[in-house]
Design a protein that fits this description.
The complex is a heterodimer of chains A (about 425) and B (about 260).
Chain A: E1 11-13, H1 23-27, E2 33-36, E3 39-42, H2 51-55, E4 61-63, E5 77-80, E6 83-84, E7 87-88, H3 90-106, E8 110-116, H4 137-144, E9 149-154, H5 163-177, E10 181-185, H6 190-201, E11 205-209, E12 211-215, E13 220-227, E14 232-237, E15 244-248, E16 265-269, E17 280-287, E18 300-304, H7 314-324, E19 327-330, H8 332-336, E20 357-361, H9 367-373, E21 378-383, H10 390-393, E22 396-399, H11 402-417
Parallel strand pairs in A: 5-8, 5-10, 8-9, 9-16, 10-15, 11-15, 18-19, 18-20, 20-21, 21-22
Antiparallel strand pairs in A: 1-4, 2-3, 6-7, 12-13, 13-14
Helix pairs in contact in A: 5-6, 7-11
Chain B: E1 2-6, E2 9-11, E3 17-19, E4 24-26, E5 32-34, H1 36-52, E6 55-61, H2 67-75, E7 80-84, H3 94-106, E8 113-117, H4 128-136, E9 140-151, E10 154-161, E11 164-171, E12 174-178, H5 190-198, E13 203-204, E14 224-229, E15 238-239, H6 244-257
Parallel strand pairs in B: 1-6, 1-8, 6-7, 7-13, 8-12, 9-12
Antiparallel strand pairs in B: 2-5, 3-4, 9-10, 10-11
Helix pairs in contact in B: 2-5, 3-4
Classes of the chains: A alpha/beta (about 425), B alpha/beta (about 260).
Bound molecules: flavin-adenine dinucleotide.
């Protein structure tokens, strides 16, 4: 049966294939699917997310193809170099590392795209591409981290990397050199600049990716990203437009160890500064002096729950977190008891975090708490009660008294450091 | 000041749970709401109107039922609402969404400021604001936590970036996307609810905003979601046993060997 709703020409159920298993009904995030006479029926609430398409065991749901463009052309994997005060953002090295693998599969080059004011100093003149060795410090480091070439655009109008002039400069470069892939860090700057550039180029942009791979058969970039607050993973492609653009989440991909013996080219592009207009201007940049690492940004979180038994015991967790360079989180029970302020709360009604390590101390692991932290890479649970649900999601479980285990952990870390 | 607020209707909860028997998603209460970040965008628009005078126009692109979100917005202080809705708009990625919204905004010129939420809690891309600004050829600032100064032609805003706050001056017309720190959204007034009930909300199609159907919706979208899946939460855990000193040592070496310490 065809959906007779607004979307009938875009998505449809093949009635002869539908087995009536209702798997699609459960998977639909907008509740758009119902059963009519034993066959799935898709209503107007459908947003074409394709959850049902990939779930249907009978392959009974079809979606029309997306936008077509001229044969997608272009070669090369580009990485945008975010930098501030002469420091390259770490995500750039992570992306260069990932880009190397992509470029090798594609049989092409990795280019680091360096825009800014004064970035070319010593980076090599336009007419004289030089080896990595003779390049300026930024370019040399980019080559050591995996770039085959560094494309440099240098102009006072590119100071502070304002979105508009940088997008103009990058759009010119893209049109001239036609890369097939262009990657940005999913930072405040990357998530502001990349969409501007994508709209200017009329191409697709996949947000905040945690997976980037090549499908060699189709020669396209396969991009995996969390959506619905991390509750769902989506695989996104941009088959017919170039470049395929993505922002990638920091601290997901691994940087290569710097290799000073790598060689690469530095190519500086002339630019007409009068075209690089910006209608925004940075008046001030003030670092936020926060004593603790922000919970959402922390690589390591030590979180406490009801098992802590009182406000005073949180100091143990603060000490452990400080030693590990992490932040302190809490379950709702601990916050409701008034032991720790609300901004430490992790879970459905608190913050959603995705650290590398989440150490849950005296937390039972109610589903609402798990919703806020289950995407941590590694979960450690320390709890007296072996039946606590937290152990179901933990990679490492310690059944024991936190007042013995945490001090032992603190001592063990101090011993290793000294 | 003429302010345009872009809002998206989203499912109330993004929590997805798995039915262990069928291994499928369970979604309860698929009630639709205004994207939470957009309620801050709307509140900021209404606050500016109350301070400086002017009008707030709220706009969404979505299925026919997205009208409810617009009515809610009127109840919260918006003066006018416009719904972009047509089968041709369906299945849009951020590029096609932004292209349609920008074309509709052009019909509302002149305006001073467009306000968006930081991101939608379902799509989670945060791309629509900057893309709309690019299509309209106006400046934009993302992650705004405070509008410090606002006058015809010029604004000064505070923007949150990694570990720092930027103060940015921008020319107007311009677009900002806002974070939750910016204000505390009000609850609808009785008067507002009455007004929302009576409001007539025009519905615009691609033709109404001057766009051919090939450049909006699924057909105008360069990206496609090929597949979605639920990230695995169950883990095969290792239980570490022994004295407190022993478990501490074992745990630290495990964490080191998996490269997280
Ligand atoms: C699982 C999944 C993954 C997706 N991944 C991508 C992707 O990587 N790239 C991509 O291009 N598309 C993607 N999409 C499509 C995308 O969700 C839609 O294009 C959507 O219409 C806008 O994107 P968003 O929800 O991310 O909004 P955001 O860009 O996060 O929204 C930011 C702000 O823009 C305004 N806004 C957003 N949508 C509307 C609207 N319809 N009407 C009025 N104002 C609006 C609101 O102020 C909102 O706060 C994905 C969709 C799904 C279901």
């Amino acid at each position: 049966m065809m959906a007779d709703g607004a979307l009938s020409d875009l998505i449809r159920v093949l009635a002869d294939r539908c087995t009536g298993c209702e798997a699609c009904v459960g998977v639909c995030p907008t509740g758009a699917i119902e059963m009519r006479e034993g066959v799935a029926w898709i209503g107007d609430a459908c947003n074409l997310c394709r959850a049902c398409v990939s779930t249907c065991p009978a392959e009974a749901i079809e979606v029309a193809a997306t936008a077509r463009a001229e044969a997608a052309e272009g070669r090369g994997v580009w990485v945008f170099v975010e930098h501030r005060r002469g420091q390259v953002a770490p995500v750039v090295y992570e992306l260069l590392g990932q880009a190397r693998g992509l470029a090798e599969t594609l049989g092409t080059k990795v280019s680091a795209v360096l825009a800014g004011e004064g970035v070319a100093s010593g980076a090599g003149a336009a007419a004289d591409p030089v080896a990595g060795e003779g390049a300026g410090p930024l370019a040399a480091e980019l080559i050591a981290r995996g770039a085959d070439e560094v494309l440099v655009v240098d102009d006072p109008a590119l100071a502070d990397l304002r979105e508009e002039p940088v997008a103009t400069a990058l759009a010119d470069l893209v049109r001239e050199r036609k890369p097939e892939i262009f990657l940005f860090g999913a930072t405040a700057l990357g998530r502001s600049l990349a969409p501007r550039l994508a709209a200017r180029l009329g191409t697709g942009l996949t947000a905040d990716c945690t997976g980037l791979d090549i499908d060699p058969g189709r020669r396209i970039l396969v991009q995996t990203r969390p959506a619905f607050g991390g509750n769902l993973m989506a695989v996104v492609v941009c088959p017919h437009h170039r470049p395929q653009m993505a922002t990638a989440r920091p601290r997901v991909f691994r940087p290569l160890a710097p290799d000073a013996s790598r060689r690469g080219e530095v190519i500086t592009f002339p630019v007409d500064g009068s075209r690089l207009l910006s209608r925004t201007r940075l008046l001030d940049y003030a670092e936020e002096v926060t004593e603790m690492v922000k919970l959402e940004d922390a690589d390591i979180i030590v979180a406490g729950g009801r098992g802590l038994g009182g406000a005073e015991h949180f100091s143990l967790l603060f000490e452990l977190a400080r030693l590990l360079g992490g932040a302190v989180g809490a379950s709702r029970a601990a916050v409701d008891a008034g032991w720790i302020p609300y901004y430490h709360q992790v879970g459905q009604t608190g913050k959603t975090v995705a650290p590398k390590v989440y150490i849950a101390v005296g937390i039972s692991g109610a589903i609402q708490h798990l919703a806020g932290m289950s995407s941590a890479d590694v979960i450690v649970a320390i709890n007296k009660n072996p039946q606590a649900p937290i152990f179901k999601v933990a990679n490492y479980g310690i059944v024991g008294d936190l007042f013995a285990v945490i001090p032992a952990l603190i001592e063990a870390i101090k011993r290793r450091r000294s | 000041m003429r302010i345009i607020v872009l809002i998206k209707q989203v499912p109330e909860s993004t929590e997805v749970r798995i039915n262990p028997e069928t291994n499928t998603l369970i979604r309860e209460g698929v009630k639709s709401i205004i994207n939470p970040f957009d309620t801050y965008a709307l509140e900021e628009g209404v606050l500016i109107k109350e301070r400086l005078g002017g009008t707030v126009v709220v706009m969404t692109m979505g299925p026919p039922q997205a009208r409810e979100a617009l009515q809610d917005a009127i109840a919260l202080g918006a003066d006018e609402a416009i719904l972009l809705s047509d089968r041709a708009f369906a299945g849009a990625d951020t590029l096609a969404t932004s292209r349609a919204l920008a074309a509709a905004v052009r019909k509302l010129e002149p305006y001073d400021l467009i306000i968006c939420g930081k991101q939608a809690i379902d799509g989670d891309t945060a791309q629509v604001g900057p893309e709309v600004a690019e299509f309209l050829d106006i400046p934009h600032v993302t992650y705004v936590r405070k509008v410090r100064e606002l006058e015809p032609g010029r604004a000064v805003v505070e923007r949150m970036v990694e570990g720092a706050v930027e103060t940015v001056e921008m020319s107007l017309p311009g677009l900002i996307t806002v974070v939750k720190d910016i204000n505390q959204p009000r609850i609808p007034s009785l008067k507002g609810i009455m007004k929302a009930r009576r409001a007539t909300i025009p519905v615009w199609t691609p033709a109404d905003v001057g766009l051919p159907e090939e450049v909006v919706g699924l057909r105008g979208s360069p990206t496609a979601v090929e597949k979605v899946f639920v990230p695995q939460v169950e883990r095969r855990g290792e239980v570490i046993e022994g004295s407190p000193e022993e478990v501490a040592e074992v745990l630290l070496s495990r964490l080191q060997s998996v490269g997280v310490l």
